[in-house]
DNA sequence: GTGAAAGTTCACCATATGGCAAACAAAATC
DNA sequence: GATTTTGTTTGCCATATGGTGAACTTTCAC
């Protein structure tokens, strides 16, 4: 497995796979054991366990084994970190487009002055 | 290059690399040509171009060549799509924890009734 | 205590990723 | 028109990813 340096690397990587996103989506509704999580997917348990491990190592889910079943649940913090990063980028972009709109407006009113 | 089925696959994959996230961050401030974008990074142009292509194929940026320079800019829509997905998951999780809190509260008040 | 259930580990495979160096193309500059 | 600048293509490499089947462990139920 690759060593993702930052938590964002690992979180976004984990989210880039549809199986893993579906698992997250399922887990937002309630915690669940491995077998139930794996049921909707057309792949063997070993492959599915790899996905779970990617999710766990990214910090997007936590798992705990009691008896012979392993229960998984979402850790909302990591999800929120990723969301924050995206929000920040959108805010920066928005700030720029706002400044640009201001500038264009200023130019237009200046042109109007010159015309009048 | 892998064929990501959905735009979310491609977007999250693109965002899982620190170089590519840095490029997005830079581009939120203003469009820029390839060479300027590549300057902060300790890698050759060919490697950097691969990153740019991943970003472009994911729809997170658009590029246009005029003369010998290629100018890149953020496409905010894709960023917003990814953010929306995360927001949705958080909302689902929140809804559940709210229901859970309600339930616990109900149980507690019932217990109090039984106690009194 | 036998057997099924739920995970887990292992060895293996094809393909994708992320980097390099070198050669090339096209446009701007002198 | 020779040179530099900017980007592009090509071939190559090591490692990561996402899957498989087979063997194994532990726990639960009978």
Strand content of chain A: 5-15%
Order of helices and strands of chain A: HHEHHEEH
The biggest sheet of chain A amounts to:
3 strands, antiparallel
Outline the low-pLDDT stretches of chain A: none
GO molecular function (chains A, B): DNA-binding transcription factor activity
Pfam families (chains A, B): HTH_20
Protein name (chains A, B): Winged helix-turn-helix transcriptional regulator
Domain HTH arsR-type (chains A, B): 1-94
Task: Describe the structure in brief.
With 116 residues, the first copy, chain A, is an alpha+beta fold.
Relevant terms:
homodimer, 116 residues, three-stranded antiparallel sheet, 5 helices, 3 strands, rod-shaped, DNA-binding, HTH_ArsR_DNA-bd_dom (chains A, B), DNA-binding transcription factor activity (chains A, B), ArsR-like_HTH (chains A, B), Winged helix-turn-helix transcriptional regulator (chains A, B), WH-like_DNA-bd_sf (chains A, B)
Structure write-up:
The structure is a homodimer of 116-residue chains. Chain A is α+β, with helices and mostly antiparallel strands. The first copy, chain A, has a domain at 7-75: Orthogonal Bundle (Arc Repressor Mutant, subunit A), CATH 1.10.10. Chain A contains 5 helices and 3 strands, in the order H-H-E-H-H-E-E-H. A 3-stranded antiparallel beta sheet of chain A has the order 1-3-2. The first copy, chain A, is rod-shaped and about 80 Å long. The N and C termini of chain A lie far apart (68 Å). The model of chain A has no long low-confidence stretch (mean pLDDT 89). Chains A and B meet through helix 1, helix 2 and helix 5 of A and helix 1, helix 2 and helix 5 of B. The structure holds a DNA duplex (30 and 30 nucleotides).
